[in-house]
Amino acid sequence: MDIDWGWIGDHTDSLGEHALLHLRLALLPVLFGLLISLPVGVLCRRWGWLYPPALTIANVMYAIPSLALFMIFIQYTGLTPSTVMIPLTLYSLSVLVPNVVDGLASVSEPVRQAATAMGFGPLRRLLRVELPIAVPIVIAGTRVAAVSSISLVAVGQLIGQGGLGYDIIRGYQLQFQTQIVAATVLIVLLALATDAILVTVQRLLTPWARARAAS
Predict the structure, then answer these.
(1) pTM of this prediction?
(2) How far apart are CA 5 and CA 178, in angstroms?
(3) Where exactly are the transmembrane stretches of this chain (predicted)?
(4) What is the pLDDT of residues 29-68, one digit of tens each?
């Protein structure tokens, strides 16, 4: 396979713009999914009967092909970024909701009792004790959701909203392998960079884990 490095050099600006759009389309749904999953996970942990139906709904949504969801939402949101981001947000829930629940479940009962004995109310205990302990598991789910979302965004180009998916489809139409390879490599690099940033965020939010590892 011959790569036209000159073409890549001449189109650095457009590839960069598409990469930034790709990130926005991919990561905003993960953020929205996290904002939804945190309260849903807390409620599922508080009332166990709520967890099975919530997980079932999230998994059913994930089972629907992305293109089918795009076609459904396009009737309401048109050819806009929302048509891509809403389905990706729904997809993220199947990963994030169980990880939030599992993260909260990882907090041992003696820790909860100790926090209560120190005068922590339910909300303060959740924010100051339970969620910080749950961070590693929640971040692990966020990493999976983010990488998956970065990959799926390219499909959105079928409705004109795909970031680097534009270059993949355009390269296919023109039978120009360089454009396809450049976009694919950039997508992989975006996924790796996002994953590395999330790992760094986890380490910053869990300084006690670093101290324990060092000891």
Answers:
(1) 0.89
(2) 8
(3) 20-43, 55-76, 88-108, 129-160, 180-201
(4) 999 999 999 999 999 988 989 999 999 999 988 888 887 8
- pLDDT above 90 coverage of the chain, percent: 47
Query: What is the C-alpha separation between 138 and 206, in angstroms, rounded?
Result: 12
Task: Using CA atoms of 34, 86, 95, 108 in order, give the dihedral in degrees to the nearest 10.
Answer: 30
Name every residue whose Cβ is closer than 8 Å to that of residue 139 and which is 6 or more positions away in sequence: 198, 199, 201, 202, 205
**Helix boundaries (H) for the chain:** 5-10, 12-46, 51-63, 66-77, 81-105, 109-117, 122-125, 131-152, 165-174, 177-205, 207-214
Two structure tokens written together for 29: 């749904």
Burial class (CB in 10 A: 0-12, 13-18, 19+), 141: buried
Q: What is the DSSP letter of 119?
A: T
